[in-house]
Amino acid sequence: MKLEIKELLKFPGSEEVFEFNENWDYLETGQGIVKFASSVSFSGKVTNIGNSVLAKGDVTTRVTLKCNRCLKLFEHDVAVDYLEEFCTPDEEENEDCIAYDGEVIDFRPSVAENLILVLPMKWLCNVECHGICSQCGQDLNEIRCDCREEKVDPRMQALQKFFEEKE
């Protein structure tokens, strides 16, 4: 996802349209590995705004995630409204500006960051997902188990034993 901007830099106000379609294997996130089920499509335009270059476009793909409740894999569509400002390392005082070297902008790191930011906080295959039984491991979406769902605070287990002895 590299774009040569040599001609664009010559004329402030000039624009260039671009389109990328790349196959990515995976992204590492704080929640785990995200695998791609389809290619990453990125289209938009770059504009020379004087001391920097403004990139605006759309990123779309489909990723495979692991449900946080039942641990099954599921696919999730991702769409990003991309808007980033790029500048030379000399102009990098602006914190919102991403530095580029020479006459080429590499979009891949910023596209990856934007994709990670739009992923859901909690990866769920379905909002109604019941997860798995904490005692027997049965997928509660498929069938209910007969395990007791009695949750006891570990600090109170001694008190629970006291009442069981009295009965």
TrEMBL record:
Q: Name one Pfam family in it.
A: YceD
- Alphabetized InterPro entries for the sequence: YceD
Q: What is this protein's name? A: DUF177 domain-containing protein
Report the domain of life of the source organism: Bacteria
